[in-house]
Amino acid sequence: EAQVTQNPRYLITVTGKKLTVTCSQNMNHEYMSWYRQDPGLGLRQIYYSMNVEVTDKGDVPEGYKVSRKEKRNFPLILESPSPNQTSLYFCASSLEGHEQYFGPGTRLTVT
Amino acid sequence: GENVEQHPSTLSVQEGDSAVIKCTYSDSASNYFPWYKQELGKGPQLIIDIRSNVGEKKDQRIAVTLNKTAKHFSLHITETQPEDSAVYFCAASMGTGGYQKVTFGTGTKLQVIP
Q: What pLDDT shows up at residue A99?
């Protein structure tokens, strides 16, 4: 089954404790992206990747890091999480940069 | 950068009626306009999209219209059903070839009343 998977689905952590949210797709898509979703703000793009080792900032990249060492994986790294990063995070992938397939989401709470 | 405004934020309709959601965008370079449906507890899913060289596109009960001059596009759902209840997002993106930077609207929560 074609899908985008994210882990973990739920995470509660404390300020400053480094964490990684994994994202993997099995569709051989070139493009992958991370978004955060906050009430009243819609989906905001954090980072995107056009191919292995090619990444670029979206609209809200501060406090986040990404890497794309393999085509199928695009982890999101929070080196020092803060409470304002409490949000619902989505990973997405796309074959040609248009239609995006979203993962199920990761709900992160930073206390 | 691109700015996408979406209205209304909530919409209630009777089953069988039509629903219309409107979006405006700011950057005339945007050339791809998708609509996503997000059901409770799930990720958004593409339901229809339109490119800047097309004025209207239909897929069964769903249609999207684009007015490039006015920089607005709309989602039309006819004969609404309870399973249409969800949050709908519009988006605008720009770029040719490589990956397109995407800006989403703030979402419309649609409730279809049986």
A: 87
